[in-house]
Amino acid sequence: MTSNSIFIEVVNGCVEGINNQQRVKSLKHFFINGGKLFPSTIPILNKINFSCRNGDKIAFIGSNGSGKSSLLKVIAGIYPLKSGTVKTSGSFAAIIEMGAGFDMEKTGRDNIKMLMIYNNMLSKYTKQLEQEIIEFSELGDKIDLPMKNYSSGMMSRLAFSVSVLQDSDILLLDEVFAAGDSHFVTKSTNFMKNKMRNVPISILVSHQENIIKDNCNRCILLQNGSIIADGNPDEILKLYNGGEY
């Protein structure tokens, strides 16, 4: 695949979620008073228009609940659109939901394949890649223990290692560079920064300004499920910190 054919495009993308509080009220009203159920959905993303091409290193920023992670999940194919379209070309490595896809009864080694299935990357599985993942995770002999015996840090290290060691055209990261002790965090952070520089497209959700400024050439600010600014990281971060939106 040529670099010019690697892209992401979202047109008028809308996503809805469940408002659990409103859902409970609606069900109470239905069973106590009878009648119709009230709508219990809430908009998460509103008419999102976003595109990027080879060379874009992008940060999504905004307050909690602004839609940053939701947009990343739309791009990754985790969240379906209610309306609009999303088109992508290129292979993905997504570090979004650390540990999603694990089977706790199976070993860490078995779960390497499980995670690659979850990320639609099983076609790239090899014994050599499996060994590289095990070595990077530093789990040693524990890789052959059932996942139910793993600590949360061990699970995060394995999930991170599976995702980060896959070759891809597009890298998606949500609020995390690594997990574990300080040695593993330092090693993984340096590895990830190098990977971001070399992958054709990378998109990062983060609140850490130093990481954004060091690794991104474009910054997108979201508020209440809408994109309200898109441009140079220094300018967009200044806008965000100044509350001028």
Instruction: Give the strand line-up of the largest sheet.
Output: 5-6-7-3-8-9
Q: What would CATH call the homologous superfamily of the largest domain?
A: P-loop containing nucleotide triphosphate hydrolases
Shape: globular
Distance between the first and last residues' Cα: 39 Å
How many strands?
9
Classification by helices and strands: alpha/beta
Which CATH class of the largest domain is shown? Alpha Beta
Strand content: 25-35%
In summary, what is this structure?
By secondary structure, the protein is an alpha/beta fold. It has helices at 20-33, 68-76, 108-118, 127-137, 152-164, 182-198, 209-215, 233-242; strands spanning 7-18, 41-53, 57-61, 83-89, 92-95, 170-174, 201-205, 218-223, 226-231. The strands form two sheets. Strands 5-6-7-3-8-9 form a six-stranded mixed beta sheet, sandwiched between helices.
Q: Could you characterize what this model shows?
A:
The chain is globular, with a radius of gyration of 20 Å. The longest helix is centred in the C-terminal third of the chain and has 17 residues, at 182-198. Helix content is 38%, strand content 26%. The strands form two sheets. It has a six-stranded mixed beta sheet, with helices on both faces. The chain folds into two domains: 1-11 and 50-91 and 169-245, Rossmann fold (3-Layer(aba) Sandwich), CATH 3.40.50; 99-167. The protein starts with 6 loop residues before the first strand and ends with a helix. The chain is built from eight helices and nine strands. The chain has 245 residues and is of the alpha/beta class. Mean pLDDT is 85; it is low at 19-30. The chain has helices at residues 20-33, 68-76, 108-118, 127-137, 152-164, 182-198, 209-215, 233-242; strands at residues 7-18, 41-53, 57-61, 83-89, 92-95, 170-174, 201-205, 218-223, 226-231.
